[in-house]
Amino acid sequence: MFLFQNITAIDWVMWIAVIAALMLLNEAARANKWIGLALFVAVPIILTIFVWPRTAGAGSSTGTWFHWVKVYSALAGCLGFMALRFIPKLQNNKWMLMFPPIILSVNIMEAVFRDFQVYGLHGMVDGVFMNGGAWNIMNGIAGIINIITITGWMGIIVSRDKQKDMIWPDQIWPWIIAYDVWNFAYVYNCVGDHSFYAGAALLLSCTIAAFFIKKGSWLQARAQTLAFWMMFTMSFPAFVTDSQFAVQSSHSSTALMTISALALIINIAVLGLHIYRVVKLRRNPLKDSVYAGTRAHDQVVADNLDIDKLPNDLNTKDSSRKDSALI
């Protein structure tokens, strides 16, 4: 295959099982705060003390600084989002509303740094085969653009249903797709032999959940599924490298260049849309919801807030409402 070496039927079955397991765990974490605390506090403490020192030490495929930073940053995101969801006074605190974009930006920048680092690496490094090249630089730039196009965090709300999900209406589908393609390219570039699961399956688990189960909850689902995957892969690193279910990357320079080029092109397109709306509608990307007035944004808000609590930009009849069918 173009991206991967031989993929067997059992590999596809396991791939689907990984997606299903991550989605089920995400739904469990959504259920209530006590399950969330058990999954994101109690379980990691046990793993940190008794498991990861043995399974994710130096020389293992998950023994790098990146994996350790990633698992704890994902857990920090989950706990910060839980604070927003379950502590009412934080939901209107502008400083707390900056936490989601900050932790998301840090998470992306960690990967950008790793892409730039891998540019000069070749052969086996920490148990992972590296094939660095210009594609790492291209994808690093795509990641920086992805950070620039993060908007609308002051419009983050908490859903009115029993799950109390953290909802980010301005995080609409073009940005999510741009992130997904960039992140898959990052995993493919930097841990290619993990990317069948840690790239494709992991990204689909949160994107399916956000598109078809709870719209607007993508970042919450992303943090939770990422935390679950990182805890699993640091506990069982052989699953993606040496088990019967392992799927190896093709390590093709053409494949690496193609995926990174696609990530860069899509992120540039989203940046163009972002700039167009900021300029045309005179939106301040640091304060306003750039995509307010689009169908994708407005429907999420309407589904999660009482009508008398709608933001001002949805209660007015300005010209921005004319483009509500565009996205």
End-to-end separation in angstroms reads 34 Å
Order of helices and strands: HHHHHEEHEEHHHHHH
Largest sheet: 2 strands, antiparallel
Strand content: under 5%
Residue share in helix: 55-70%
Annotation, overall tally of beta strands: 4
Q: How many helical stretches? A: 12
Anisotropy-based shape: globular
Please compute the radius of gyration using only Cα atoms: 20 Å
**Overall SS class:** mainly alpha
What average pLDDT do the residues reach? 92
Give the strand line-up of the largest sheet. Answer: 1-2
Uncertain parts: 313-322
Précis, in short:
This protein has 327 residues and is mainly alpha-helical. It has 12 helices and 4 strands. The strands form 2 sheets. A two-stranded antiparallel ribbon has the order 1-2. It has a two-stranded antiparallel sheet with strand order 3-4.
List the helices and strands and how they pair.
Elements: H1 9-31, H2 33-50, H3 52-55, H4 65-86, H5 99-118, E1 122-125, E2 128-131, H6 134-148, E3 157-158, E4 166-167, H7 173-190, H8 195-213, H9 218-235, H10 253-281, H11 295-304, H12 312-315
Antiparallel strand pairs: 1-2, 3-4
Helix pairs in contact: 1-2, 1-8, 1-9, 2-4, 4-5, 4-9, 5-6, 5-7, 6-7, 6-10, 7-8, 7-10, 8-9
How would you sum up this structure, described in words?
The structure is a single chain. The chain is mainly alpha-helical and 327 residues long. The protein is built from twelve helices and four strands; from the N terminus they run αααααββαββαααααα. It has helices at residues 9-31, 33-50, 52-55, 65-86, 99-118, 134-148, 173-190, 195-213, 218-235, 253-281, 295-304, 312-315, and strands spanning 122-125, 128-131, 157-158, 166-167. Strands 1-2 form a two-stranded antiparallel sheet. It has a two-stranded antiparallel sheet with strand order 3-4. Helix 4 crosses helix 9 (218-235), helix 5 runs parallel beside helix 7 and helix 7 (173-190) runs antiparallel to helix 10 (253-281). The longest helix has 29 residues, at 253-281. Residues 313-322 have low confidence and may be disordered.
